[in-house]
Amino acid sequence: WVDGVNEGILIVLQGGFESFITTRFDAEVMLAMRGQRYSFKEIGIENLIKKIIETGRSDRRFGECDVQIHRGIKFGPADCTVLEITHPVKREHFRFHIARVYFDNSLNVPVRYQAWTWPETPEAAPPLDEEYNYIKLQANVGLTGADFDENNSEYRFH
User: Fold this and answer.
1) Quick check: pTM over 0.85?
2) Neighbouring C-alpha atoms within 13 Å toward the C-beta of 20
3) Which residues pair with 79 in a beta bridge?
4) Are strands 128-133 and 9-13 parallel, antiparallel or unpaired?
5) d(Cα 17, Cα 137) in Å, to the nearest integer?
6) Is 25 helix (H, G, I), strand (E, B) or coil?
7) For the segment 95-123, what is each residue's pLDDT rounded down to a tens digit?
8) 11 φ, ψ to 5°?
9) Which of 108, 103, 112 is nearest to 131 (CA)?
10) Residue 55, φ and ψ in degrees, nearest 5
């Protein structure tokens, strides 16, 4: 799937025994989102950054945020700075109780996002609601349009 190409159609080459089958469908249909909260159109680092900014701006309007910054935290091979936000009181306008965003210090992008909702009882641990990880992330690896072209013979699309 490439934004703005093929009218939003996701082109999938099956793996394993069914590797000769190519399927096309809208990126937001239930099959494409099976087991996922967000569609292909909503995932990725750029969209994560947009959601972090959007949520931060919204939360600032309401206050009730405890913000901590932790430096020198390792996530896989990355040295990170972690932004931790806690909303102590459950409110309709807050999306999470606790969120942690790990920023890779060398790439200056988020490589991990975790969010917990409020616990059911005061003594219970907050349940993990979302977690996204980008491990061993590399930027500018030299991809071209051919790497996303369904006519690329290396992909064996049929």
Assistant:
1) no
2) 1
3) 74
4) unpaired
5) 30
6) strand
7) 899 999 999 999 999 999 999 999 999 89
8) -110, 120
9) 112
10) -65, -40
At 13-63, the pLDDT tens digits run 666 665 566 777 776 666 655 666 666 677 778 888 888 888 887 887 888
Cα distances (angstroms) measured from residue 35 to each of 39, 48, 94: 10, 19, 24
Task: Please give the structure tokens belonging to residue 103.
Answer: 């920023």
80 burial (CB, 10 Å; 0-12 / 13-18 / 19+) is buried
Q: How many helices (H) and strands (E) does the chain have?
A: 2, 7
3-state DSSP assignment of residue 103: strand
DSSP helix/strand/coil, 33: helix
Distance of CA 52 to the CA centre of its chain: 11
Amino acid at 51: K
96's tokens: 């999470």
Give how far Cα 36 sits from Cα of 29, 39, 84, 145, Å: 11, 7, 24, 27
